[in-house]
Each structure stands twice: as C-alpha cells, then as structure tokens.
C-alpha cells in the first residue's frame, strides 16, 4: 500500500461547510459556504450557535 496525501482530490481534510456571520443592520445571521443561511439574530453569539448547529447537524 502506498499513501500519497497530495494525490487524493476526493477525500479532502477540513470541514466542507465553512460558516461565517454576516451583519445586517442591527441583526446578525450565520452563513455557510454550502448556501445555507440561518435566521437573523440580535446577537452574534446566537448566529454563531446557529452556524455550529448547522455543521454538527450535517456531520451526523
Ligand atoms: Zn453548510
């Protein structure tokens, strides 16, 4: 068996879902690279929690 980490395009390390928080006026919402976006929250902490829940929900 020969393992070549630089030659494996399918199995990529790291999360496929890259989440960020976006501010909209006085609200903040979570966004993901997959196109998902969370509900508008009043606190960034809430938006971050939404993003984390989205990732963990898809991880299972
Ligand atoms: Zn996602």
UniProtKB/TrEMBL annotation:
Ranges for region Disordered: 1-22, 36-60
Compositional bias of kind Basic and acidic residues: 46-60
Protein name, UniProt field: Uncharacterized protein
Taxonomic lineage of the native organism: Bacteria, Bacillati, Actinomycetota, Actinomycetes, Kitasatosporales
């Amino acid at each position: 068996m020969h393992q070549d980490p630089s030659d494996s395009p399918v199995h990529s390390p790291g999360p496929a879902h890259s989440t960020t928080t976006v501010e909209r006026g006085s609200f903040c919402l979570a966004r993901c690279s997959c196109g998902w976006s969370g509900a508008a929250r009043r606190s960034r902490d809430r938006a971050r929690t939404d993003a984390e829940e989205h990732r963990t929900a898809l991880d299972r």
